[in-house]
Amino acid sequence: MSSVAAMTDGRRADFDAFDSYLALPRVTELALSPDGARLVATVAALNTDGNAFVSALWEVDPAGERDARQLTRPAKGDSSPAFANTGDLLFLSRRGTDDDTPASLWLLPTAGEAREVLARPGAVGAVLTAREAGTVVVATEVLPSAADREADDKRRKARKDAKVGAVLHTSSLVRYWDHDLGPDETRLFALAGPDGEPRDLTPAPGRALDEAGTALTPDGATLVATWNVIDEPGMPRAQLVAIDTATGERRVLADDPMLNFASPAVSRDGRQVVCTREVLTGYDSPPRHSLWLLDLAGGEGRELVTDPDVWPQEPQFAADRRSVFFLADELGHRPVFRLDLATGQVTRVTAHGHHANLQVAADGTTLYALRDHVDCPPTPVRLDATAVDGAATVLRAPGAAPVPGRVENVAATAVDGTPLRAWLCRPDTEDKVPLLVWIHGGPLSSWNSWSWRWNPWLTVAKGYAVLLPDPAFSTGYGERMIARGWGQWGGNPFTDLMALTDAAAARPDIDETTTAAMGGSYGGYMANWVATHTDRFRCIVTHASLWALDQFQATTDFPGYWVREWGLIGERPERYERWSPHRFVDAITTPMLVVHGDKDYRVPVGEGLRLWTDLQRAGVECKYLYFPDEGHWILKPGNARVWYETVWAWLALHLRGEPWQQPSLL
To answer: pLDDT tens digit string along 211-257?
Structure first.
């Protein structure tokens, strides 16, 4: 498989030197002006102290002829670029002197200096602009009983002065990934223009707008949003609603107790809405994903993608409204697809790579996106909207990183005859090297993209081959592949992993006697399951892992999600008993490195603590790497360094027989 070689700002990464890797700029967002003449990206880079990432806005030449130029140079970070209909650039920024200063809305005119246009007591978290009007919609955090800004400010000050952090919850959810929810709630405000007075469109929404998807009609008159409804504890589902930006009047566009709507987009004539629709199934079968089209004026919608093997994401209307573009995982990639609304025909626009932040140009023939893959970090690209399996034109931007090796495809066959595949990242040598099997999380996921956090190339640079398998449960291989893992977490996913490991270990350039396994989240669950069901690996690393399913289901931040697949433990205990790794602890003989963050709410730290205690009592060689200030992912640069150095020391000890080398910062 070939990489896309992107233009850079002159930096090259030495993946064997962690400082060099950390110094690479990271492109995270993309915004296109209404006329298609300007393209702006958000780029995060390490600060001068080397202990945090700070994002800035860069302008990228859509023609690909000029180098990107930096537009903002913030001390604390700029993000969320959005073009006003005038061509001015709106964005979010934290530019106060206090570390607690919340993000506010700023405007960078086509000529002149940036200025603040809206500050709120709670952070501004998102910004939307109308293509043909001056209307701006922002999301911001407001205390529930605050009727206006003055009341919000007064209540916040009173809580701060009294050192009160307590929150009274009346419904789920109470936490999300790595942060507590409340006491503020997300509200949406409309402004007639960037300098207009904000109007509260959603007073007293509760938790209805957490993680909301939003879209604004071109005339700015209507805001389309997802609206969370709590039918059962710990399991919000989203309606689709339309909100009048002048009056705040809200009407429901789509609602069903067994459906979940997300990622709305509005057509350029403002008449239609397209969104993703998830069918919430349950204990016996996995969910289904499709696209849903409906008129903004109301009426019945219709399903656009009827193939259950395609899970569409991030839909966008074509400029002529005759087609819809969307993204979907496919065989280790995430291409762009084009759907003809008249015929229903689906065409793959791009042949390879993983795409995100899709931008549709007004000319009807051009798309822009961030493209990455296993061996290529995200970089802005231009695409031919009319192409079939077309190639990307890479634009000049920061963030390229030639990798220290090559990536190849590995194929295998499952015990039930299902074709399996994986990526193998390995050094540029024909010598036999040790193998690390890195199991992805999710479990509904795929190794089809670049990861700054879970990056295999840092380990490849140390002389290891890294296998990135897509077993049962992986997306991009059809509905049956997901169903093969549904409700049997340690069944087909485990045997698939072993089949792919066997295929990789049989290669002449792999030392099959020195193999290790590692995974995080669901991958951590599977690492624990591997430890309890085979001794073929020299050592295991398990990060943010599920250990005792009954304990996990009631303490995770999203408990209702798992109930749909596993059932309530008092009513359907069989899956908890059959597939919980903790029940097989006495079978473990493989040395295990346990890693967990205290602020991990998706897989609470109690899972790691219980695993660590059980391993010690069972007499298993083990270590516990604990991060008091991190969540599900280890994101702070210093902590990330310690994470990798500890993992490398563990691998070197058990795969190479080297003495244990304690990281210097531990």
So the answer is: 999 999 999 999 999 999 998 888 899 999 999 999 999 999 999 99
Q: Which CATH class is domain 18-394?
A: mainly beta
312 CB-near residues (< 8 Å, 6+ apart): 276, 289, 290, 291, 305, 326, 327, 328, 337
DSSP per-residue codes, 101-152: PPPEEEEE-SSS--EEEE--SSPEEEEEE-SSS--EEEEEEE-TT--SHHHH
Contact at 8 Å (CB) between 222 and 251?
no
Angle at 349 between CA 346 and CA 350, to 5 degrees: 135
CATH number of 406-655: 3.40.50.1820
Cβ–Cβ contacts within 10 Å for residue 132, how many? 13
Domain boundaries, the chain: 18-394, 406-655
Instruction: Decide: residue 109, CB within 10 A, 0-12 exposed, 13-18 middle, 19+ buried.
Output: middle
Per-chain mean pLDDT for the chain: 95
Rg for the chain, CA atoms, rounded: 25
Residue 333 burial (CB count, 10 A): 21
- 3-class secondary structure per residue, 439-488: ECCCCCCCCCCCCCCCCCHHHHCCCCEEEEEECCCCCCCCHHHHHCCCCC
Element (H, E) at 53: strand 53-60
- The number of helices, as runs of H, and strands, as runs of E, in the chain is 11, 38
CA nearest neighbour of 317 among 353, 335, 293: 293
> Which position has the higher pLDDT, 390 or 234?
390
Residue listed under structure tokens 């109308």: 130
Count, residues in the chain? 666
Place of tokens 């109470």: 174
pLDDT tens track for 407-436: 999 999 999 999 999 999 999 998 999 999
Residue labelled with tokens 């697949």: 565
Burial zone of 29 (CB within 10 Å; 0-12 exposed, 13-18 middle, 19+ buried): buried
Digit-coded pLDDT (tens) for 16-26: 899 999 999 99
Residue whose C-alpha is closest to residue 523's, from 576, 476, 601, 470: 470
Cα–Cα–Cα angle for 590, 427, 46, nearest 5°? 90
